[in-house]
Amino acid sequence: DDELQTDGNRSGRFRNGELGLAPTNEDVIRIIAAQLAEIGDQFDKEIQGRVVNDLVQHFLNENLSKEEITLHMSRVVRELTRSIPSDMEQEKAMLVLAMVLTKKIVNTVPSLLHRVFNTTLNYMNQQFHNYIVEMVSAVKQ
């Protein structure tokens, strides 16, 4: 499976000492990334600072397990999804909200990058793997 990068680029892998790109239609990935970025820009303005600060506190708490933080992030995303227009697919809204929250947390406390990125990646893989595969397939057709 290829990795979907938030900037629309494909993940590179080293093969036999050379950088090889995974065999994916780059244009499809760029189209999806552009759509998600546009939605993310709209959501970015709607997320209040207290929501981000609350998540930052959870990530800073060393006593919380990855699972506990992931569950809290999932709850926050679900709560924020309630304020999203109903004409948008819920999975898409939740996926974008998770990415926007990640960006806001890391912009607030850059030292949390590794922990926040890994948590978000795990969350997205658990919740949206099939949705992302379907989204890529739909654009290819």
UniProtKB/TrEMBL annotation:
Keyword Nucleotide-binding: no
Main location: cytoplasm
One Gene Ontology term, aspect cellular component: mitochondrial outer membrane
Name of the gene encoding the protein in the UniProt record: Bid
InterPro entries according to UniProt: Bcl-2-like_sf, BID
GO biological process per UniProt: apoptotic mitochondrial changes; positive regulation of extrinsic apoptotic signaling pathway; positive regulation of intrinsic apoptotic signaling pathway; positive regulation of release of cytochrome c from mitochondria
Protein name (record): BH3-interacting domain death agonist
SUPFAM superfamilies noted in UniProt: Bcl-2 inhibitors of programmed cell death (SSF56854)
Organism superkingdom: Eukaryota
Record key words, sorted: Apoptosis, Cytoplasm, Membrane, Mitochondrion, Mitochondrion outer membrane
Localisation: Cytoplasm; Mitochondrion outer membrane
